[in-house]
Write a structure and sequence with these properties.
This protein has 159 residues and is of the alpha+beta class. Helices cover 17% and strands 35% of the residues.
Amino acid sequence: MRLFGYSALCLTLSAALVGAAGCGKVPVKPTGSAAVHNHPAKGPHGGSLIELGKEEYHVEMLHDDATHTVTFYVLDASATKAVPIDATEVVVNLKHGGKPEQFKVAAKADTTDLAGKSSRFVSTDKELAEDLDAEGADAELVITIGATQFRGKIAHTHK
């Protein structure tokens, strides 16, 4: 009889928990590689995206070999809208062939930016443009938004 009472109690508690959880169908937000990204594969200008933080922001990178121009656009979490920030520059830390390098990329306000802020950063440094294409290059963007510093891996596939 004692076993029957224990089993009945467990069954009652299980039923209560399933009912409270909506028949056991509790939505789970995937993480890691299974996470669903709620943004396009490319930025609004057609460039590659760099994720910042836990996708709090994105940066779109455009790379023009002909002019050796590399442009970074700061975007919101959806990777669709410009986010003007106070920074006057962003930094690219790059390593290839065992040699670390650092490039500063200056703000260049877009026509839609607020006074004193920029969502666009532009470099015409030929070395940066070429090093991003170098075999085995490992690059990271360092950017400060508000009081928070973000680092984002530049996974550049442009050739």
